[in-house]
Amino acid sequence: MKPSTLSNTIKELRKKPLNLQDKDVKLFQQAFSIDIKQPILQQLDDITILKDVIFQLKNFKFYPTFTHIQKKSKTYLTKRLRWLIRGSEHINKGLWITDEWSSEYFHWITDALPRLITIAQSELFNKEYHVILPLFFKTRPYVQQSLDLLGYKAIYYGPKKRLKVSKLLTITHTAPTGNYNSEIINNLRESFIKNLQLNPDRLIYISRAKANRRKIINENEVIDLLKKYNYEIHCFEDYDFNEQVAIMSQAKSLIGLHGAGLTNMLFMQRGAHVLEFRNENDSQNNCFYALASALDHNYYYLLNKGDKEDTFDVNINVNIEQLKETIEMYLSS
Predict the structure, then answer these.
(1) What torsion do the CA atoms of 18, 302, 259, 232 make, to the nearest 10 degrees?
(2) Cβ(14)–Cβ(95) below 8 Å
(3) Measuring CA to CA, which of 4, 20, 118, 269 is 20 to 30 A from 153?
(4) Structural domain ending residue among the three candidates 117, 138, 173
(5) pLDDT in tens, the chain (333 residues)
(6) Is 243 found in the same domain as 209?
(7) Host domain of residue 56
(8) Are residues 58 and 110 in the same domain?
(9) Structural domain total, the chain
């Protein structure tokens, strides 16, 4: 469904899962629609980055809305003033798009990069502006690889010095984390796949066999079934970011357990099929359902018994018969 606009707020209306059962409506109810504030772009002059916050000395003002999702106390911010006595580095023009979660794959792709491309569409932006990133972001190869693919440059700063920026462009989050401004997230998809030759016909299953947590206990049975339907089995830890984009841009169907790998549905064309293995009774973690709707994919789900209620640590058993029924439902559509 298309979002509707009221003043500075967008109401995102989401397509319901195509295999939604009445007994499961409560799991998705709160995610069927959401009001999202339009992002606010701001240009700040003569600012200083104090470890992880933006500070303007001439106004003696912090800007935590742009740097954090979770509200920071006055004590937390005041402690950052200690960085003012440290040595400094200086750049002329910079972009700030990150928060305390942005180094993780899902949050980098769905929270940080939408802020970047929105800033880049403004009249204030030019190629002299570089993305400002904490040094530890270099340990996440997908950060630099995604920026390279999109055509933006990054400047990394160390934690022991303050960074002075003459002109800084920043923007509020384009949506609460786990939610999406449909127009912006689709602009991001187009930016990634616009130069690719697209003929999507691949069926992809993302395995978490190499992950540290959240696994499928009977995955061998799941894989045996999926191979009968010609699904390819992939551990995305085996590929760099460019390879993941290439694989997913050729996919017409994606299956996986709730986890960062499902973020890669971003690189699929509209109308693809997405099947998420979910933890039974989980009504809180609808980020991939919401993403599939924003990208105009056909979303399906399968509820599974887990060994704990916490979706982030659960290991599940997939009902093989229900999996077979669900696959046949959407492959025949």
Answers:
(1) -90
(2) no
(3) 269
(4) 173
(5) 344 333 588 999 999 999 999 999 999 999 999 999 999 999 999 999 999 999 999 999 999 999 999 999 999 999 999 999 999 999 999 999 999 999 999 999 999 999 999 999 999 999 999 999 999 999 999 999 999 999 999 999 998 899 999 999 999 999 999 999 999 999 999 999 988 877 889 999 999 988 888 899 999 999 999 999 999 999 999 999 999 999 999 999 999 999 899 999 999 999 999 999 999 988 899 999 999 999 999 999 999 988 888 787 888 899 999 999 999 988 877
(6) yes
(7) 41-173
(8) yes
(9) 2
